[in-house]
Amino acid sequence: MKPEDRFVERLRALLPASASVLLPPGDDAAVVARPSGPLAATTDLLVEDVDFLRGEDPERLGRRAAAVNLSDLAAIGAQPEFFLLAIGFRTELGEDFPLSIARGAVARAGEFGAALVGGDLSAAPQTIVAIALWGTPAAAPITRGGASPGEAVWLSGSPGQAAAGLRLARILAAFAEQGAKPTERFPSLSSADQRALLDAYHDPSPRVALGLSLARLGVASAAIDVSDGLGVDAGRLAHSSRVRIVLERDALPLSRPLRAFAEMEALDPIELALSGGDDYELLFTAREGDAPRLEACSRELGVPVTRVGRVESGRGALLRDGGLERHIASLGHDHLEAAR
Amino acid sequence: MKPEDRFVERLRALLPASASVLLPPGDDAAVVARPSGPLAATTDLLVEDVDFLRGEDPERLGRRAAAVNLSDLAAIGAQPEFFLLAIGFRTELGEDFPLSIARGAVARAGEFGAALVGGDLSAAPQTIVAIALWGTPAAAPITRGGASPGEAVWLSGSPGQAAAGLRLARILAAFAEQGAKPTERFPSLSSADQRALLDAYHDPSPRVALGLSLARLGVASAAIDVSDGLGVDAGRLAHSSRVRIVLERDALPLSRPLRAFAEMEALDPIELALSGGDDYELLFTAREGDAPRLEACSRELGVPVTRVGRVESGRGALLRDGGLERHIASLGHDHLEAAR
Q: What is the pTM of this model?
C-alpha cells in the first residue's frame, strides 16, 4: 500500500461514524446526505515545483486546477455546481497574478456548469492553488468499491500523454533557458504531436459528461480518475473493490504522439502510460454484456473508451503481456513520497 | 481600499451573474441556492511563516485552521456541517504530521457539529493548510452590507488578545532558542494572563453560537468576523454597507491580560486591538432598541458582547476619542501586502 493510502486508512479510523457521510474519505470525492438529497464535494491542493512546474502561466494553472477537481466529480458521476478558490502567491507578483489564476479557473469550471462563489488569498513563498468543488450526484454515486470478478475494465482517452507532455515541457523549458530553438531537436515529432502532448498535460479534459452518463445509465460498477498513474490508480480501485484488476498490455490505447515522443526519447510508452499520472481519464468497470451500451455512449459523447482488461478474483493490479504478468499497483505518484 | 478588497472587486467583475449565488465573493462566506434551501461555504488557506509561526504544533494548527473557517460561518449565521481538509507539508516529517493536523481540525470542528468528509495531500516546502467548510444558514444570512445610520455597533469578546498572544509566542520562541527561562522576564504578567493571551492566538473560539442566535433572532443588521484587525474589518463592514462606522475609544473592551502585556512591552493596547487581527470575534450592528435582547442573548450564551460604537451616514471607519477622530480602516492585515 502506498503511504498516501495508508494515511487515508488511518484518517478514516480517526473519524466518528456519521450517518450523513455517504461516501467517506478515500474515494475521488465525498458524498454527504442533505435534506434535498446527496451533495458531492472534493478538494485538490496544487503546489508549485511539486504539482506543477515553476513559472507556469497563471491562467493555464487556474484552468488545470479546476480540471483536476472537475475530474474527481466526474469519477463519481456528479454534476459540478460551485467552487471556492484559495490562492497563495508571492505578493510582489501583484494582484493580476491571482486574478489570472481565477480567470482560468472560472472559465474552465464554467464550461462544465460550475461557478466561483468565494475564496481566500495568502502571501506564500511559492504559488499554491487550492480548490474545493461541489455538485450533485446524477444518480447513486459511482465509487471505487463496486467492481466484481468477471467484469470488464474500461478506460477513457489515451493514458501517458500528459506524462509525455510534462517531460516535453521540461525539455522545452531547458532549451528556452539556453536560448536554443527547440524545433530543431524534434525532427520526428510534428508540431501537432507536440501540441497534443503539451495540451494533455497543461489543459486536461475532465470527463464530466462521461461520468454523468455512466452514473445515469447505471452501467459502471466502479470508477476512479487516473490522476496519479494508471498502475497505482488501478491498484486503488482493486483495493477498494477487493478484487484483482488485470490490464492487457496490447489493449492499452497508446496515442500516436505518445509513441512518437517515446521513440524519440528512447522510452517505453507503456511505462509512461502506467506510471505517468496527470491523465484525468476515467478507469471504470462494467459487466461484459454492457459493452454495446458503453460503445453507444462513447459515440454519442465523442469520448473514446477502450476495453483494457478484466476484473478477477484476488488482489492487486497486474499488467498481462502474453503469458507474463507484472504487478503495477506501485507505478505512479504518491503525494507522501518524494516530489515528482 | 486595501489591495485585497480591490482584488475581490475585480474578481467579482469577472464573474457571470448567477441567480443561484445568493451571497457572492466579498463576504465572510458564500451562500448558494440549492433545492432544499441555501447552503453556506467558506475557505481559508493558512501558510507557514505567513499565517502561523514556523514549527507550530500540528494538532494546534489543525484546531486553529478549523476555527478560522468556523468563524466565517459564524459571521453570516450558519450552522457548520462538513469540511474538506487539504494539507501541504514536508514529506520527511512523515504521515503522523498531517494526521495530527487532521486530528486537531476534526476535534475542533466536531465541537461545532462539523464532520471531516475528505481532503488532499501534497508535498510542499512548508506547511500549508486549506480548509473548505459548508453549512446551513440558520435564517436569512447576515451579510456585511446591511448596516444603517443610527444603529449601534457591537463586538463580542476582547479585541487585541490574539495579537498580544502572537507577540508573546514570538518572544517565548526567541527565549527558547537562547535557552533562557522566559518566566523571569515577565514579573508583571501572571501565568494565567500569559495563558489567556497565548490561547487567544493559538486556539481562538469561533463565535458560532452567537452568530446562529443573531441570525435566528433577526437582530443583527450586518456582521463581520474580526480576522484581520478591528480597524480594517470595521472599514470593510462600512464599505459594504455604504455607511460610516464610528468606534468609541473608551468603549473598547480591553482585557486585563492585554493591558498588562501592553504595559510591559510599552505598547498602546488600543493599537493592538485595532490592528492586531486573529481575534475571530464578531463585529455587528443592531438597532439601538435591541440592546436588551442582545444583552439577554449574551447572558444566555455566556458570550460577552459590548456596545462599541455607532453607525453614521458617511463612509469609512473612525475611532472617536473625546473630540478627536482618527481613520482606522487601514489598520490591520492585508493578505496582498507584506507577510505579517
A: 0.94
